[in-house]
Structure formats: structure tokens, C-alpha cells
Amino acid sequence: MFCGSPPAAKTKEHILPMWLLRRTGDPSRRANFGRKMSEPGESWEFSFDAFQFPACRACNEYGANLEERTAPIVAKLLSDGELSARAAEPVVRIWGSGAVSGTAEPKSRSATRNAQCQADIAASQAQGCTDFRVNQQQVDANGVRVGTNRPDVQSTDPNGTRQYQEYDTRSSGRGPAHGTRIGNNDPAGATTLLIVP
Amino acid sequence: MSLLLGDSWAPVTSEVGFIEGDASELAAFHARWLDGLAAASSERPTQVTELSGALETNLAALLPLTKPLRQRFLFQSTDSAWTAYFDNGTPFADAASLSRVARDVGCRAVRVVAIVDSGPSAPRRGAAIWELYGPTKTEFLNYVRTVSLANDGGKWRFDVGGTPQPFEETERYQAKRMRDRFDVEMLERYLGALGIRAFDESFYVGSGWLVDAYRDAMARNVEVTLAEARGALGLDTGPA
Questions:
Q1: A125 touches chain B (CB under 8 A)
Q2: Which of B212, B215, B145 is CA-nearest to residue A128?
Q3: Which of A24-33, A160-169, B218-227 has the lowest mean pLDDT?
Q4: Distance (Å, rounded) from C-alpha A130 to C-alpha B48?
Q5: Residues A35-73: tens digit of each pLDDT
Q6: Do the chains contact at B141 and A145, CB–CB below 8 Å?
Q7: Which of A125, A150, A152, A154 to mutate to test the interface with B (most CBs of B within 10 A)?
Q8: C-alpha angle B11-B14-B20 in degrees, rounded to nearest 5
């Protein structure tokens, strides 16, 4: 359900996370999920915790990583607790990570990817990002090598957060696994997966 | 061969940059750019200070080193049309940021990385990197030419990109052993062809201009003395 490809090592992903269901009532409460097109007058009705879709294991793990970082932020919002801009940053990053390139018909996949990558680097430079590494081993904001994997682009933003960009095609499906690895190597960093035609 | 100041100011001098232009104007340009960033501090505007000491004295004004964000930048005059760039980042400076300066100012800039490899188990990985940036778009950003030999996590990696320059010893790039394809001596010759004597202290004459750009996010910065930074790289404590 994340990458659009047939699930590899299939798992079931809760569309609404269990922690959110528990926080807002009985996770097994029944809910209406819309009308059945094949049976007029009938509707899809089942418990919230059964609302699941198949997902690749890697995609699911990537989602779990994001969820883990998001849950305390949402909890604070729901309890009207104080939340600094920095503390909320993971949510902003996650919401921003679905950016899909709207480029023109590419000459080749790699050409499009390179063009997008360069445009993003130039934009990040203009915003004050530093310490770029392109296709090199993963290094955190303090310059410490944290993995032998090679994120497509790494840089440190003006707030001191290490930013990682992975460029992937919709059909490849490797992006989430790469994202998981990057996140595990540097939990303080922010990873953006970009789908490029 | 000896690196700049006998490498006693590494890692500050391990990565340096050179920009075509006047040091005071480039410092002022950099300060204006930093003040225009969204993350600029409203409390403490960026300050530019002229330094008239010898190179080592001017480098000392960069201390302490900071991470992850750089606070101080030195634009040092030379006896040529090039201005040298140093910053107070650790574990290394970020002279690659000069590619943006070259684009914005409309000039050439050079990134130089010269690190002698200390062996497979040492924390300091060797590198010889030469990058030439120009004012206009090229195949990759505004990178005119890149020649790089670097120990990336224990594995040597050699990369070339862009348009070969007339003074390059391109036959060396075919050497069987990767480490023989580029080295600090070749780097020095390439720089010499551009009129840059990066490792010669007498090249750095005239005033330096220190840009001190504090931003609110730097409250979380970690300060590191030069001796600590050198110690982390397995080097002696350096200048007193």
C-alpha cells in the first residue's frame, strides 16, 4: 500500500494505527467504511482494528519508524500539551515527504533523477544547507560515519538537522527499505523519499 | 611535501577553499547572505571583523570549532587574485559551499581537501580532492571539474567528473592501483597551475576578514577545542 508494488514479504498494515485507536476509544468499535458498490443499500462495516491493507515488510517497518516518531507529537497535540517547532519537525518532514516530482517526460530515468537531485541540491544550498554528500557513506550532522549505505543526497540544514534524500521510482519499491536503514542509522536525522518518474 | 603549517592546524586546514575576488567584499557578501537566511538570528546580527595578523593568528580567531553548525568563517587575502576560505566546522570545514558562492557572485572557486592517510585502523581517513566551480550551470550544478581520491569508510574511491583541464595529468587516472591515480602532490601541481600555493604559508598575506554569524539554532552546538578535534583524529595537540 505504500510503494504501489506487489507486497514483498507481505505483512498487514493498520490504516489507522492501534495506538491512535486505543487513545480514541475501543479499538474494536465498528465503523462504516462506505457503501458497497456491488450491493446497493449495503455498506462496508467492520471494526477499526480490522481495517488493514497488505504492505511489504520493508514498507511497513519504514512506516513504523515514522509512526514511532510521530506518536508522541500527536499525543501532545491531543492533550493540548506544549510543542516546540523543533519537536514537531518530524511530523512536518513526514507530511512533506510525499513530494512527487511533476517533471516533463524524461529522456531516461537516471536523467530525470539527476535533474531532480541537482535542483534539490541547489535549492538546499540557497537555504543554507551545508556538508552535502552525494552517493557517499552515511554521515550524521556531527560528521560521524553512521553507516556504509549510501544515501542519494545528505546535507545538514541551518537548524543542525541532518537531511537525507532518497530518489526512487514508483516501480522500484526500494526507497522505503533505504529510508528505514537511514533512519535506524541516524534517528535524529530526517529522511525524505522522493518518487521520480 | 609539507602541508600548510606542517599540518599543525588540521583539521582546520585539511579542507580549504579559494574564491576569485577581494577578501573584504567576499566576506561582506557572505555575511549578507547569512543574514538573509530564514534561520538567521534576530538578536545577534552577523559581524565582520578585519584581522591583520599572520595566518596562524587569523586562524586562531576561528576557535573554538563548533558542530554541527559553523559559526565563524575566515576570508583570508593572498598574494594573488584568490581569497582563501576557512571555517570553524569540525571534524572538517565545508569548502564545497563555495560552489554556491561561485554561482551567486559569478566567479571561479576551488575546493581543496588534503589529508594524509594514517593507516587502516586510524580514525583519520586520507583524501586528495580538487574541485573547480564556475559561475554557470554545467552537467552537475556549476562544477567545472572534480578529481577526488578518498578513503570513504575504509574503501578507496576515485572519482572524476566534468571537463578535463589542460594541466591535468590524466594518464595517471589509469593507474592500476586506485591510490596511485591522484595524490596530494598532484593536487599541489593542479593548484599551482591556477596560481594557488595552498600549502605555502607565504601565500597568505594581507588582511583576513572574520565573519561571525551566530544563529539561534547554535545554542545546541557543541564547542570543540583544536586540541580536542586533533585528538579525535589521532593527531598531536597542535599549536599551543
A1: yes
A2: B215
A3: A24-33
A4: 21
A5: 777 777 788 888 888 888 787 766 666 566 667 667 777
A6: no
A7: A125
A8: 130
